[in-house]
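Form 7-S
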Amino acid sequence: PDIVCALRASPALFSAPITPGTDLTVKWWMAGQPFPDAHWGPIIDYIAPCNGPCASISKTALQFVKIAEWGWIDNSTYAEGFWATNEMIAANGTWPIRIPAGLSPGEYVVRHELIALHVAFEAIGHGPYFTDGAEFYPQCVTIVVGGTGTKIVEGGIGAMELYRGDEPGLAINIHTSPNHPDYVIPGPPV
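Output:
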């Protein structure tokens, strides 16, 4: 359950108002310092409808749909390449999440996740659910969407079922080259 929104996460008592088609900007930091540069990896954003107040839904009942993903960018800066997490750090730890235009009004959970690949090589050859490897940093924000949109979020998946840990994008050695143009971002398609 800690992979859903974070270690010991519980439902928020407040949902931030937002207009569909606009950006929700999040900020990462660690005890007064930016997220570490050496945690190269993708950034993935999901959304799940609460079908009522988010304060009363169990995080394990949420069904997430991927709305955005960004992985390897180029071979500059580091021997491992320049990744979405490096771009977020360069933007002072901020990351914009576009809330889908036309989304129907209601409360939703936005799941924003950084995946650090600096020790992902440890999972190579060990099969699913190995205890070492890629590091997952999920966080959730509850929002209340206004407006008159009609798009419904359907066909999601529970966060505990998004990854196994042995996918090519999670069991990978990024230290062998700065070039990863074929990197496969884990999880379902956008």
